[in-house]
Amino acid sequence: MSSNSPECFLRLKDVAQRTGLSRSTIYRMMGEGMFPPSHSLGSKAKRWLGSEIQGWIDSRVAAAPQAEPWKPPPPPVQRVGEKKLPPLVPNKKGADA
Predict the structure, then answer these.
(1) What pLDDT shows up at residue 96?
(2) Under a CB-based contact definition with an 8 Å cutoff, are residues 16 and 22 in contact?
(3) C-beta of residue 3 within 8 angstroms of C-beta of residue 50
(4) Which of 30, 57, 64, 70 is the most exposed place for a label (fewest CB within 10 A)?
(5) Nearest-5° Cα angle at 27, 14 to 16
(6) Hey, what CATH topology would domain 9-63 get?
């Protein structure tokens, strides 16, 4: 099975890549009970179930507030009779002078 399949065991680097979290943040959140715990596959092998990680990601997306679509700012208001400044033109000394 590939690491994209939810029914597989994921290594720490795969979990970090899928969630965007660092190694230390994953372990800190596990300690706080805010992240799915790892499963022991041996004395030195810890893995996470892909379906548990996907469920955690889905719950985070569902809990996020819906952002409003971006709108460009309105153009500046030009007052009646206000003079426009001439465009900046570099002089003989250079643009910084």
Answers:
(1) 57
(2) yes
(3) yes
(4) 70
(5) 20
(6) Multidrug-efflux Transporter Regulator; Chain: A; Domain 2 (1.10.1660)
Place of tokens 């569902």: 62
Place of tokens 């996020």: 64
**Binned average pLDDT, 10 residues per bin, the chain of 97 residues:** 67 96 96 95 92 94 82 80 73 62
Q: How far is CA 76 from the centre of its chain?
A: 32
The pTM assigned to this predicted structure is: 0.61
Mutual angle of helices 23-31 and 12-19, in 10-degree steps: 90
* Helical packing angle, 12-19 and 50-63, nearest 10°: 20
